[in-house]
Structures are given as C-alpha cells and as structure tokens.
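#struct-help
A.M.: can someone run this one for me? Single chain, 427 residues.
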Amino acid sequence: MIKHAFASVGWFLRASKARKKQSDEMRIAAEKAELDVLDAIKEMPGVISAWHALRIQDPTRRIGAGEVDVLALTTKGFALIEVKHWTGSIQMIDGDIVQEKLQRKRPVFEPLEKKAADLKRCARSLIREDALEVTTIVALTNSNAKASDEVLRHPGVARMKSLSEKINRRFSNHEPLSPHTLNNYAELAACFGTWDSLGFEGGATHIGDFDDRLMPQEWRRKKYQSIEISIAHGFWKTMVLGPKLSIRLTSWGGNVTAEYLTPPLFIKHTSPWEKGGVDGKGHYPISYLRTITYGFQYEPFGQHHEQRLEMNLQYPTEEPSISLDKEVQLKRKHNHLEHPSRVDYSQKFSRGTRHKGTVVKHLIGDDGSVYALLIALVERKVTGMLKMKELNHLNPEMFQAFYAEGKPVDVQVLNYNGQKNIQLTTR
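D.P.: on it. Structure tokens below:
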C-alpha cells in the first residue's frame, strides 16, 4: 500500500512539473508576425480569403508537406507568403536573402518556389488545373531589421507597408480569374490542413506530425479534432486512488465527450526542426500534455476530398456561383461527409476518358533508353503508363521540353487494369 502511494506521488509530481513547460519567446514572436501578416492580407483589396500555416503536399514523397506561413487567394491567383521576423542586417547574397548573423546560409527563395511548384502539381490532380496562377513573396516584418536597398528592391521581398503593392505588382500582367476558376482554387485550398500540435499547461506548443499508428484507436483523427487532458485528482487523492487522467474529446462537428484514463499511455509526435519527446524521438506520455490537436481531418489525396471535389468543382459550362464577398471565406472547408462513398476509379478512368497528369518518372530499359513514362493521375493514388510509341510524332529534341519529370501532360485512357496499371495515350 505504501509502495503504491509513493509511486502515485512520484507520478503526480513528475507529470505536474512536465506540464508546466513554458513557451519559447522567439517562437511566439515569429508566430505573432505571421498572424499580423495574415490580418493585413485579409484587409487588402482583391483578397478573397487567406490562411495561416497551411501545409502543401509534396507529391514526390510518400509523406511530407511544406508549410506556407500565409496563403492568400486573390482575384488573380494564389500568393504564397514566407514571413521572416529577422533582426539585424539582411543582405542579398548569391541571388538569395541572408540574415548576416546566421552562421550558415539558409535558402529562402528556393524552398518557397518549391512549395509553389507543389501547389501547381496538386492542382492538376485535385482540381484538374494545369495552369494554376501562383506567385511568391517574402515578408520582412521586424522593424529592427536593416535590409539593404538591393533586398528591398527585389520584386519578391516586401516590408509590411509595401506588401499589398508588391503582390499587386507580381500579378500586374495577370487578368482577373473567372468566378468558376476562383471557386475551384478555393476548393483546392480547402483540401490542405495545418500542423498537428501538442500543448502544455505552461504555454509551450510543439507543432509537427502525429504517428497515427500509435494513437489510441478511439482518438482517431477522422472523428476528433482536439483532445484536452487534465490530471483528474489533486495530490492527496492521487496518492490514495492512484494516477488518473480526465480526457475531454471534441469532434470536428463540435460534439464533446468525456472519459477517464489510467496511465501510462504514450503518443509519438515529431517535428522537422527539433528532437522532441522524453526520448528525443518524439514519444510523450499523455499525462505531460494539456492538449492534442489534429491539423487536418482527411489527407488531400484521399477518398473524402475526391468525393467532395466531385460535388463542388465548377467548370466554364456551368453557371458560376461563387461570391467574392470576404464573409464567404470557404464555409464548405469542413465538409461533414463522415463516411464519403468510395471513388470508383475503374469508372473515373474508364477507356476513352481524358485526364490531366504529371510525368513522375522516365522508365529506362536494359539498353539505357526510355521505353515509357510513368504518369500520376491522382497523386500518391493512381498512376498510368504512357509508352514511347505513343510519342512517335514528337521531335526527339523536344522530348525533354514537353515530357521532363514534373511536367504536366494531357492523356487519354487506353485500358484500365487497376489504379496502378493504366495504359495511356496522348491522342
């Protein structure tokens, strides 16, 4: 009995101390800067909607996504905004902006352009659009930063006061998009989520990704948006009754349920910037945490979003219905199809149907020559093969220009034998 009481007290003290982890002041300042940019963007003329910390899927990886600090949908296209709350001297070196006090150069423009390219590729798969209008801007938000004239003259860099002007200048040669195109762009943005996060009573927050395989089955992300964790009893009651946690679960629809849980229980949450958890590998006892929050309910290329897009996409032949009023702000973002019907790929990709795809890979034969192209029709889900004999009409010198890896391509289905075995043609 005494041994049990001492063990319970030890658990209570360890959990209470760990839960008091405090916020990182630099991280708080950086996030506030991002939210300030978000607020400013929402007030700019021509901006329909804006989002904070959306994660654009990288279709070339099995898992993984790049965060966009602020994504804005304007009447002329998407603006991807990278927020830098840097202090000190900022210079232009080798075609990129650099904070001089950093010990090593960290690229800024290249990763941002990569996210723009990923967004375009996602658009081909999700909304069948291969000409997505996208531009990129780096926003310098710290008033103490001393940016050089060369940095400030760069068309892709803005201060807060010049942000609207720079975005408009980037889109100066673009025509306003049609209502149906803007609707589809909005539907594309609604497919993406943000980070999964952990919160502590002391204010600290960690963003990253949960390992869904290690989450309790009854806490699955498809059902719950957030989970709140409290120590159920005080010091003396815990010593007598033993460790107990009070759990409050909130569904995506807003319904709340409560339960009690007896520790131990561990979850795994990893971040690309830091080693986390009690073991440096992302494992956390849930008794140390205050909140668990999922950043998205369904992955972008899954059945849920495919079904939702089938219902909500608009095309030129249809009567456009999108309103450009800022109050609209994508009210359909969380579609409440809890169990969407499965997409019938055999019907969607039946013989003779036409689709937009992306060249994923050149397939090389034993003789070293390309014998076929692997084409992504639904990223991470559906692929087809375009044999080189289908491209006999093409001048060999133009092959790389039109069919390099990552290039968009219009194809027609010759034969469907499964979602990873589709024969294609360009005719």
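A.M.: thanks! Residues 196 and 295 are 4 Å apart (CA to CA).
D.P.: also worth noting: The first strand starts at residue 47 and ends at 57.
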